[in-house]
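<backbone_tokenisation>
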Amino acid sequence: MPVLAQETVQYLNLKPEGIYVDGTVGSGGHSQEILHHLPEKSHLICLDRDPDAVRISSGRFSSDHRVRFIRANFADLDTVMQELGISKINGILLDLGMSSYQIEKSGRGFSFSREEPLDMRMNPDHKPTGDHLINTLSALSLQTLLREYGEERRAKAFARAIIRAREKGPIKTASQLAEIIEAAAPKSYGPWKRHPATKTFQALRIAVNKEMDNLEIFLHKIPLLMATGGRLVVISYHSLEDRQVKKAMVDWEKACICPPDFPVCACDKVPVFKRPFKNGRKPAQEEIQKNPRARSAIMRVAERISS
């Protein structure tokens, strides 16, 4: 069930003979909604680094001549465009959340409620795995990882608990790690609205998949890849991603960035994007009731303007 599906189509502003990209196709929910509204002579390029995602989604739309599926990281969009002979795109969606398939059926340990190997790789060809990091990082490095990528207030206590547990034997499964964190969480904080291992799993997944690095690379490249009038639509699910996206969009929108005491502009900076709305859009309560995983989603949009 794609999050903010109608809003995605609305803000992509689909046009005839346009080239659009779903940079995180997953199980194809957003792509399906886009294709329902995509003009006949327009094209949709679907990317994902997870081979299962490409296999599943391409199977859903194999008969639609307007769509093409490529296994690739959205951070490598410039390379994909070059290989396809595309100079500019008219719109791109990034849904930075996990797909239901990855959580429930991938078998890679993304869910703390499952007895699965603590793999956590979206691209199974890359290293390291989640269990490698958990079993080899120092206490200080684990603490830093949990604090920076999980914004976990109890990072120090949880890192120590992980170190103690792995002294008895390697931590191999998702449920094993979840039990360690749950045991280390202060009981006075319960009952918890969400599992105490939620932020730990978020931090580990981000580190394994280099999610923040990939997003930074993408945001650096996208102004040169987008046609004038093209729209970038990003849906994020935690504050780290949202802050990074918002900062980039605010910077793109700025003109002069010289110090305020400069008598005249010396930077020659011009705006390259404008935002249709300043504050992020969140799902309506009705959507959250139908799809609880949408509750933390926030959408930001920027439109490429001539420079």
Observations:
- The mean pLDDT is 91.
- DSSP finds 13 helices and seven strands in the chain.
- The beta strands are 19-22, 43-48, 67-71, 89-95, 226-236, 273-274, 298-304.
- The longest strand covers residues 226-236.
